[in-house]
Prior knowledge:
The complex is a heterodimer.
Chain A: H1 7-47, H2 53-57, E1 72-79, E2 103-107, E3 126-131, E4 134-144, E5 155-160, H3 161-166, E6 177-183, H4 190-193, E7 227-228, E8 234-235, E9 241-244, H5 249-261, H6 285-295, E10 315-316, E11 322-326, E12 331-335, E13 338-341, E14 356-358, E15 368-371
Chain B: H1 4-21, H2 39-46, H3 66-78, E1 80-81, H4 85-94, H5 98-111, H6 115-120, E2 122-133, E3 140-151, E4 163-175, E5 178-186
Antiparallel strand pairs in B: 1-2, 2-3, 3-4, 4-5
Helix pairs in contact in B: 4-5
Amino acid sequence: MGDRPSRSRRSSALLVAGVWGAIAAAGFGAALLALLISVATQGDECGSSGPSRASALGSPGGVELGPPGTAQLVGATEYGGPGDPSSGTIGAAGVNLLAHPDSYAELGGYTFQSATAMGGLPYMTPLRVTWGARSAIGYKRDFGSGGGPVDGLPRAIDLWWQFADALGIPYEDGSWSGPVRISRPPLTGSANLLGQSAAPDPALLTPPTGSQDPASCEPGAPTGVPLTAGQRARLLPDGLAAAPSDAPLAVREMIAAGDQIVGKPYLYGGGHGLPLSEIAPAYDCSSGVEHLLYGGGLLAANFGAASGTLESFGKPGAGRWVTLYANPDHVFMYVAGLRWDTHDAAGPGDGSSGIGWHPLIRSAAGFVARHPVGL
Amino acid sequence: MITPRLGMTISVLALAACGLSAGCGVTAAPRTPRPPPSRVERAQVTHEYPSPSPPRQAVAGAWRSPITAVEAFANDYINWTFRSVSADMRELAARSIGQARAATQLAAAQTANDYELQRGGIANTGTVEVDAPLSASVDEYVVVTRELTTASATTAYQGLQPAWHVAIATVTQVSRGWWVVSGWQPQS
């Protein structure tokens, strides 16, 4: 953080120092109560199955940004400039904001981690901000504590005064406030435009509903997937799998994706031709595996190759968390020690014979072992 | 002088060495080679009828080193316009194998009549800033590019700065001293 924090952080720090003692006891009690309620209701809210992408990027209690191009009206303020010397010119990450006039701060907290009024956008996230008929792209380089609503709208964004000026907002010595429209710009770069990036596509995010708020689940837990302690997935009596709590988020999301299609019938060619983001009526070996890989953010939604193509997926050999076994005829895989497969090849007692999780290992002779990079 | 105890020790060691090297007079019983299971037999186990292995992929061009193969692939992957993208990806598919070919073939097919790209007049330009081998991997490279997306018929990209992107490339030696890209996995 720079030696001259921006105005919203400095002024709010003074305010907080004044009232902190008075509210500390009440705050502690309220936090304890909220924690108890959260724990008591966690089972209900995490119990339903559904797409898991939103959980990783959701906005706990703040403005929920939609897919690119979807504008949203929020409360905004401005900071910095000659009329607001207390804000200084150095952003929270130490950059000179005068050299980066297209800057904004996300409000709602006292650190980059806690200022999440727009969901906790990563540093340098571009946003299109529109005021009246003018719009411009700004980049997140700062945070601020925020405050009460602006014109009845949640106060979400603090515009660096030069950025506000570019939008035509009148400079009021850093005290202007009003509504602006914000939206994600479209994804850029060849891989994103061609739909081949492994990064989550904001267009596919589904905002959490009130009864299914991921903030009430374990931090980073995919919505709906049951968790089990340790590093190995566990097969549940209903055929679903519980994800290991120690596994990386991508692994837990793969298990959540698997749970979405457990029990679907096997059909040669099934699931191909549909985007992986959709649930098909039936799957074959490769489309089933690809649905899980997509769930973990490891494949684009439009990927749809046969099992032989997966012989060159990722890196060779077994992975720490995920291993695919592929040949031109078939593909199956292990996710956190649990086999995802289409048939009952391990013999009697192997479990269900459809698409799903299987309790026993099977021979991997004749298959090529591959694993996702980093997993 | 060889004492009885030393002689016994030498005998035991010699016998053990014989056993390990297999074939010092101890012959294994002849085994009848078991014929490989037929396709139908395999299908009865796996419930899927095996298909023949795909033919070896022919490649239209190769490079003298892995790094030049990766750099050439990356440069062509990130520099295109809505008019050229389908042909560019088709050409990349011809000059790559494996997953990289599958990915670029898919991109070529999907962009041939992509309404959004055409309507927006989208173009992507960029430079390869870094390509370096991944540690502990002889055939994988991390590629960092800096790309700018523009549009001639929409304001959606107006004001956006060039952005960093990362991909993991895998290379394969197709003949002695000639390399092509066999895997292309963009991360961002």
